[in-house]
Amino acid sequence: MKDKTTKIILSFLISVILWFYIDAIVTKTLDFSVEIKYFDLPDDMVIIKKQELFSYNIILSKYSYYEFKQPPLEVRVSLKDVMVGKNYIEPEIIKKFDIPYLARISLSEKKIFVEVDKKEIKEVEINPVIDSQNLFLVKDITVTPKVIKIEGPSKILKNIKTLETSTYTVNSSGIYSKIIPIKNPYKNVYLSVTSVKVDFKAIKKIEERFILIPIKVKNLSEDFEAYFSPKSVNALVKGNFDNFKENDLNKLYFYVDCKEITNEGNYKLNLKIDINNDSLIIEPFDIRSVDVTIKRRLK
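Above: the chain sequence. Below: its structure as tokens.
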């Protein structure tokens, strides 16, 4: 009976110890992702692509009360011996502070990918992009500076001949002097300046219309009457119509000046027009003079 009791007690104790052992090896995992720090890049090299983040985890006992206020490991990669092209480099793992003795560190990868190229510096011209909306004539364009230096990977720079500015939209006539940013679509290319001064003139484009304009007689003595044909003439109107109302166009007319006429007869008189708008030029299209017959009025 005594032996049996002893066996039962031993079995219970072994079960308890085994339970504690199994429970103790149950773990919890803490995941971290940190920025990779690159250093020792040769002066004549430039990075094209690189791995930005490195992941790892720390495995602790589930009963561990330890908490990390910040990632405990720092990941560094020396680029001292890199070659042009793709490189796979073993990182340097540095403990920033102590971690629990029984903790295990698991790294996501053994090597870091980085691609480098020879660094090149060259000069390129800047082309301003000005949107005239097809309404304005843009002229006398100057860019300061016209040429800038760019720096970056050789295989990218060899395909860059010029760079453009951001688009500037013209909305009115005038003289412009604008600071406009340079567009840089290349991630690994650096510009000596990021904007340029662009000076230019914008002139409203000349618009042309054909209008039938009536002909009148002016300055004729009340003693005479004038007979002429045609009574209207096709005219070519050129200029900026923005400041000229449609109603004003309807009021336009050509005239023949009879101020110097003192006798009856047939006269060939030039067409004239009065217009108080410097933005328009009006010219007769098919005829420039009219045959006028002057007769004395019957009393």
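The chain has three domains: 20-117, 118-204, 207-296.
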